[in-house]
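Thanks for the sequence, V.! I ran Cerato-platanin right away. Repeating your input here for the record:
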Amino acid sequence: MNYTTYGSLQNFPNIGGAAAVSAWNSVACGTCWELTYKNKSINVLAIDHTDEGFNISEDGLNQLTDGRLGHLGRIDAVVRQVHTSACNF
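Predicted structure:
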């Protein structure tokens, strides 16, 4: 696969870091995760590591929080791994 920019990923902007991605070349890189916050869900493609939870794009967080990211900053979401097809990958 030859992805040269974040925008070339089909699930962009719903991409981000996940604690499941332990390091470079991790088998968890490219996994898809459903994040749910207050009955709203988005699917996020894990492409990088973060120390805890998820670190996703501002656009993704705004989709998940109905545009309230500026008021919330950080949220606690329910997560579950889903098939990669849910992230168009």
